[in-house]
Amino acid sequence: MNILVCISHVPDTTAKINFTADGTALDPAGVQFVINPYDEFGLTKALHIKEAQGGTITVINVGPATTEPTLRKALAIGADKAVRIDAIPMDAITVAKELKNHISANSYDLIICGQESIDYNGQQVPAMLAALLEQPFANACVGLSLDNGTATATSEIDGGHATYKASLPMVIGGKKGLVEEKDLRIPNMRGIMSARTKPLEVAPATEGEGPTKPVSFEKPAGKAAVKMVDAENVDELVRLLHEEAKAI
Amino acid sequence: MSILVFVEDWNGAYKKASFEAVAYAKSWATMNSNKVIAVTSVSAPAGELAGYGADHIIQIGLGSTAMGIAGQLKELSAEASGIVIAGTSLGRSLAPALSALTSGALSTNTISLPLSTSPLQLKRGAFSSKGIETIELDSTMPIVSFVPNSIGLEPVAGEGNLESREISSNDALEVLSTEVASGKVALPEAEAVVSAGRGLKGPENWGMIEELADVLGAATACSKPVSDIGWRPHSEHVGQTGIQVNPNLYIAIGISGAIQHLAGVSASKTIVVVNTDPEAPFFKAADYGIVGDAFEVVPKLVNALRAFKAAS
Ligand SMILES: Cc1cc2nc3c(=O)[nH]c(=O)nc-3n(C[C@H](O)[C@H](O)[C@H](O)COP(=O)(O)OP(=O)(O)OC[C@H]3O[C@@H](n4cnc5c(N)ncnc54)[C@H](O)[C@@H]3O)c2cc1C
Ligand SMILES: Nc1ncnc2c1ncn2[C@@H]1O[C@H](COP(=O)(O)O)[C@@H](O)[C@H]1O
Q: What is the ipTM score, two decimals?
């Protein structure tokens, strides 16, 4: 089993988000970057598959050198090798094309992405990648079992679940449920030591500019001060919701 | 040229987000004197979609998976200069797949109508509602996927003509089964959401939460630890790592308001917080707050809302 886990490198969930003075980019000062939470589930799932049936796990990121600590962390968690495509991608299609080029030159039985990167909240790369590769795709995947080259995947859909079957190779957009949160692997000392000597290959970018560009960023308008209502007077809350907020 | 809009159905009927998609397409099309072509599996008279701005309706047997439908829409997109797709769970796979097939620039998580059409600029949510990005899309075949509930519905007077077509749908993914809870309001599309957290003490106390949701026609949601302990299903977990919602009304009961929770709900238009702790961080993100015990406040609120509904 040759598994590729696509990793995005994102601000920690507790990070305060600020933009540069000219408003054109994220201001990274003081922001700690981590493995995208959705990708942690994918990485642990890959480890479970490898432990059950053997194989190799490659982690990949399309990004500048500053993402290498995140890839090293994935190696410390248990991936066998890492690849960084050296680019500063401005949009998802550029990332998807870079990933496709790498995948076409290597052969993977399973490609695990996260459902969404929590930075730009695109939810774009995995479906684009599947379409470019002409491979089956299961998004919001909360369960995956493999049997002799056939995958059974359970996905969340609006209001419920769907179960799919496909032949490998395929692309997964995974999330919590792929493995349970309590089973998520974290690096241990041995892992951290061995990660130092595992291969981290840097490959040049092959794609040019994409079709979208960020113009500016702003913070959402702050809320006006909260109006407190007495716990004994819920009728007043109903009145405010109706007359003032027009929410009911 | 025209704006093509994907009309998703739900058990053979139009999804609410689909009307919003048609209305979105209409507003966009009007900026450039374009027409709106709606694509749907539902065989129904033109009226309902025309009432939100569909000029032309193509009825077609659509596939059951995102990749299958993406291939069909790609063929239809030859007649279009832009595409609109609601950001439902299907739409969130369909829009990027279609964008890869058509090489069209894509904006997902879009929260505004076009700010301008040449160049096409839009606003979209980023950094889990901690930021808003203005994005510019190349003009070749721009695709806009918007957050349901973020635009609003504008009925228009229109006729709309119908046509049926056949395009085959191909996907290597086989659907074995689907299970959908019937009768419940789907979270991402809900106009009102009643959400509860660890302050509720145990799963047996959710009856009053469901009652409150019932009176409001709201969907129910919960904080992450609540679904982690198994008090509520994972599908109700909202927040940065769960479902992101933006209803007109979000009522948070016994939820502290951690930054990761707020990240998924702060785009809600009106937020009401009920919490015993006056220092709970959620009050800073709320419009209305009640410091009080959920077990006393919620039943009273249910009664007050029932009385309000009966009187109006
Ligand atoms: C990587 C990461 C991702 C995360 N993602 C999410 C996410 O997507 N969504 C999410 O929700 N959380 C998320 N979290 C968890 C988050 O940090 C908080 O731990 C969580 O939101 C707290 O849930 P809670 O408010 O229900 O519980 P608590 O923090 O325990 O708060 C319970 C609240 O109930 C109040 N209360 C107690 N009794 C009563 C009563 N009788 N009546 C009224 N109020 C009462 C208390 O005052 C308290 O404010 C994430 C955390 C991490 C580290
Ligand atoms: N720059 C990147 N490098 C590698 N994988 C990525 C990158 N960006 C996104 N992905 C993958 O695509 C998933 C969804 O990301 P997005 O489409 O950005 O929301 C992530 O969880 C990753 O698995």
A: 0.95
List chain A domain ranges: 2-217
Q: What is this structure's pTM? A: 0.95
Is the Cβ pair A211, B137 closer than 8 Å? yes
Q: Which residue of B106, B244, B290 is in closest CB contact with A237?
A: B290
On whether both B16 and B146 belong to a single domain, the answer is yes
- B258 and B292 assigned to the same domain: yes
Are the CB atoms for A107 and B82 separated by under 8 Å? no
Q: Give B223 Cα–ligand 1 centroid separation in angstroms.
A: 6
B306 in contact with chain A, both atoms CB, cutoff 8 A: no
Q: Do B229 and B136 have their domain in common?
A: no
Nearest CA to ligand 2 atom 20: A114
Distance A174 CA to ligand 2 centre (A): 11
- What is the 8-class DSSP label of residue A201? E
Collapsed DSSP state (helix, strand, coil) of residue A77: helix
Share of chain B above pLDDT 70, in %: 99
State which fold the A2-217 domain adopts: Rossmann fold (3.40.50)
CATH number of the domain at B292, please.
3.40.50.1220
Q: CB distance A234–B103 less than 8 Å?
A: no
Tens of pLDDT, residues B278-309: 999 999 999 999 999 999 999 999 999 999 99
Smallest CA separation from ligand 2 atom 9, residue: A8
- Where helices occur in chain A by DSSP H, the ranges are 37-53, 68-77, 92-105, 125-133, 189-195, 234-239
| pLDDT score of B183 | 67
Q: Of B208, B227, B235, B241, which is best to mutate to test ligand 1, by the most ligand atoms within 8 angstroms of its C-beta?
A: B241
pLDDT digits (tens, 9 = 90+) for B87-140: 999 999 999 999 999 999 999 999 999 999 999 999 999 999 899 999 999 998
| CB within 8 Å of B254: residues ≥ 6 apart | B196, B197, B198, B199, B200, B274, B275, B276, B294
